[in-house]
Amino acid sequence: TGGILILTLFYSTRVAGFYEIARIVATPAFMISSVIGTGVLTKVSSRGPDSVAVIEDIQNSLAFSSIVSLPLFFGTLALSREVVVTVYGSEYAAAAPFLVLMTAFYVLWTQVDVLGQAINGLDRPNIAVCILAVASVVAIMVMAVCIQFVGPLAVIVALIAGEVVRYVGSVAYIRQEFP
């Protein structure tokens, strides 16, 4: 991914390895959301102009999309070092902060994925692309600023900033579409 490339270029392969460890350990966080998002796309596209049913489908899906990512996030807040050391060994303990931030990113991503699929279900991929473009620009700007102050964790901080923008943009569009 881009994060690994950036970390390798600006820091080292060791630091990029910490990022990759966090990404692999946090992977289960988004699996449920991916399945739910696909269902939302189908439901929303088949509902047509029935805004009450569409909003209900989106709300129900959002309620369960983070069912794995939230406990994983709170678990890593308390035990991130222990998880990394247990799975990869003590030489990778420095990956613990990466894991906490990566699970925070996936909490946001699980919500944004459902919202994005809802927008695609409304047959508005142009809106989804615009939101993604703005989020990408924000993420790049945040990374450029934070990399000097936060260090290698800036890559994940930038991902989180981008997801916040995607979340806000997606919610704003859905609220505009279904007042």
Can you characterise this structure?
By secondary structure, the protein is mostly helical. Helix 2 crosses helix 6, helix 4 (51-65) packs antiparallel against helix 6 and helix 5 (69-88) packs antiparallel against helix 6 (96-121). The chain has helices spanning 2-10, 13-26, 31-47, 51-65, 69-88, 96-121, 125-149, 154-177. The mean pLDDT is 88. The longest helix is centred in the middle third of the chain and has 26 residues, at 96-121. It is globular. It starts with a helix and ends with a helix. The chain is built from eight helices and no strands.
Blueprint of the fold:
Blueprint: H1 2-10, H2 13-26, H3 31-47, H4 51-65, H5 69-88, H6 96-121, H7 125-149, H8 154-177
Helix pairs in contact: 1-2, 2-5, 2-6, 3-4, 3-6, 4-6, 5-6, 6-8, 7-8
Secondary structural class: mainly alpha
- Report the principal-axis shape: globular
> What is the averaged pLDDT score?
88
Cα-based radius of gyration, to the nearest Å: 17 Å
Mind describing the biggest β-sheet?
A: none
The proportion of strand residues reads under 5%
Low-confidence stretches: none
Record field, number of beta strands: 0
Q: Element order, helices and strands?
A: HHHHHHHH
Please name the defining characteristics of this protein.
single chain, mainly alpha, 84% helix
In brief, what are we looking at here?
With 179 residues, the chain is mostly helical. It is built from 8 helices and no strands.
